[in-house]
Amino acid sequence: MASSPAPLLSLGFYIILDLSSAAVLNSIASEPINHNESFSCLQGLHYCDSYDEDDKKCCDINECSGPNKVECGRHTTCTNTNGNYYCSCIDGFYSSTGKKFFMNATEATCSDIDECQERNKCGNNTECVNTPGSYTCHCKAGFQKDFKNASVVICNDIDECQQNASICEPNGSCINTIGDYLCKCKPGFGKSSKDDRKICKDIDECATKPCSEGASCKNYPGGFWCQCLPGYISYTEAIPGSKPKSSCKPFSCSASSSNNCSDGQTFICNFTGQLDSICNSSWSAQNHRDKEILLKDMLHLLDEQVSSSALKSESKEERHHKVTELMREVESWLRHFSATLANTSISIESSKGTELDMEIRTAGNLRQSSVSLLQNETQMELSWNVSNREDKAFSLIGLLTYQSLGPLLTGARIEGSEREARQPSYEIILSKVAAAFIGHENTMSLNISVNFTFNHTEAVPANFSSSSSRKLEQRLICAFWEPVNQSWSTEGCELMETNGNSTRCKCDHLTSFAVLMAFYEVEDPGLEVITKIGLIFSLICLFLSILTFLFCRSIRGIRTTIHLHLCLTLFAAHVIFLVGAGNTVNKTACAIVAGLLHYFFLSAFCWMLLEGVELYLMVVQVFRTPSLKHWHHMLVGYGVPAVMVGIAAAINHQGYGTEKHCWLSMEHGFLWSFLAPVCLIILINSIVFVVTIWKLTKKFADINPDMNQLKKQKVLVITAIAQLCILGTTWIFGMFQFSDHSLVMSYIYTILNSLQGLFIFVLHCLLKKQVRDDYCRLFCQRGSGKPQSSDKYSEFNSTATFNTLRPQKSSQESGI
């Protein structure tokens, strides 16, 4: 408020009057002015209403009321005092002369005080509004009052985006600011500088004429597209350092990536050549009917290629390769040709039953969020969001169901997820093979799912599972054709529901699909239990045998050294088999395990071969040929297997590791890199075994003339059994496991070979008198003297036998 002017001297009189007591004032008021004995009241007083001559009294005159009221002016107040009065401005106004008190309107006028001129009069985020004699405070636009208490009011920001979530929709998003909000427009939308409502409106990009020659610009809410004129198709031109540019060029029937017919491309080149010829002869840029006829001719040509006898006579690998290339070319050509079909629905069926459905929509013409393609044998539902081309010129969704393609893809592998590593023994394609495609080729990872429904067109043979002696587990799977590996795969596909006639699948990518019935071989649990228990016993016995051959001095010699290394290689092979043979999830680790098993089993057979060679030299060539030297043994036992494994890995390193076990693959005959040397060694050792037993039988009377016939037979039986497990001839039973009726052979093979370590320990350690004597010297009490041991087979040992055969050489080796 403005300062009031300093009071005049007369103000003191007013104040004194105000402060004097009523008695004093009455005394003064009653004092007469006596001039010539006359009586009158002072200024500001008058005779009281009860005046009489005897009681002369003067009363105050109220100048602020009554008919003679003083005129103080507007926005003033009149204050009466005893004997006087004064005028003053009311609150919110100030005197024009600076006097706080004045006598009438002629002395001063009162003007309004503008309180809003004071800085921050109302506080933050407020507006001050001056009023006559006062002011009011309001929150600024975008703020609202917040009462903290009765005397404190603050203004807080209003979150317009929260109050009205759709304030910027449908073409923008709301961003709150202090005291206001902003609408962030979507691409293709903008705001006018004159638009107070901040509404995002479509930008007409066509006004700048962005399209190239051969195209017309079509604006739609949020963008535009360049629609190629009839006879032109859209293509994307890569420009270094900038975004790809879409243009229109004259349509050409040829869309094939195969430029020559060499290197096995004759089949594909012939197909694309015939397709281009049909297209060029019937192509019409204007007539839509001609385009449908062209597509029908294409399906007829496709049926002829698929049903050709030349393709069916190809090998499985070559047939799968050609069919994969054919499907790739057909999809590429349809994607290329669809650029000429703006806003079109195509549904065509060939005379042989191959069906083609396509939905083509130009940009901005997608009235539905998804599309369903319904055919006789296949149905597909897909969202338009995944169907746009990179240049966004148009959207395409297509479904091609082949009538006769399924039989050409039989025998292919089925790649499963890491959780399902088993490979089925057999599969049947129950549905037609259907190829799903869209406007671009990047279809292996979609952000939404695609739903398929397949009708079953093939029946599962009723007696299929019972036709084999092996148990088979049936499993219905949704699979797609993986063009790189040329195999079926279940990755990204899920079976939703099925009944006797149809199956519904859901996948997160697009390619060629089908429903398969896979038959998985059920492993016999008995064989697995026998194998694990037998190998554990063998490992224990092999470990004891290794210690025996290392530390028993009485049996040291060339044959004991061979026994030792045979046990070492078998021990390593059995440990690796138990630990890693079934871990097929990690393909690299599985291949390493398979390679180690390949090496150690081959090494074990090489030591078995050396067993046979030494046995032959010992029994047959007694005086003619000396034994092999130690380095010869090492070279054959460890060097030869390393060379064979190295050659096999160099030729086909992918042959290590299968879907079921970490072992050698049977594909391309790779298993023969193990079977061939093993069969050769078993054949040689079998001959040595027969010759050895024949020689012993023939000369037994000369070796031990005092032994009776029964003991001779017992010794020969023990000798034969001992040599069978040393020479590896029990592996012959493994050759008979490839028959459908080989369960008995599987059990015999599993039992004999998983217990090979047990046989070696019992027959070549426990039944040896020298070994038992060494055991007794080690474990028996030392005070009992030299332990005595007798054995019904102790007569048959190397000392007794080969001292007769080799009288000039004293040997303490183990017996035969």
From TrEMBL:
A GO molecular function held by the record: G protein-coupled receptor activity
One GO cellular component, as annotated: plasma membrane
Residue ranges of domain GAIN-B in the record: 333-523
One Pfam family this sequence matches: 7tm_2
One Gene Ontology biological process: cell adhesion
Name of the protein in its database record: Adhesion G protein-coupled receptor E5-like isoform X1
Membrane topology value: Multi-pass membrane protein
Gene3D superfamilies, per the entry: 2.60.220.50, Laminin, Rhodopsin 7-helix transmembrane proteins
First and last residue of the signal peptide: 1-22
Residue stretches making up the G-protein coupled receptors family 2 profile domain: 527-768
Coiled coil: none
Membrane-spanning residues: 533-552, 564-585, 631-651, 671-694, 715-734, 746-767
Keywords, sorted A to Z: Calcium, Cell adhesion, Cell membrane, Disulfide bond, EGF-like domain, Glycoprotein, Membrane, Repeat, Signal, Transmembrane, Transmembrane helix
SMART domains assigned: EGF, EGF_CA, GPS
Keyword Signal in annotation: yes
Localization terms from the record: Cell membrane
Positions of the EGF-like domain: 60-99, 112-149, 157-195, 202-237
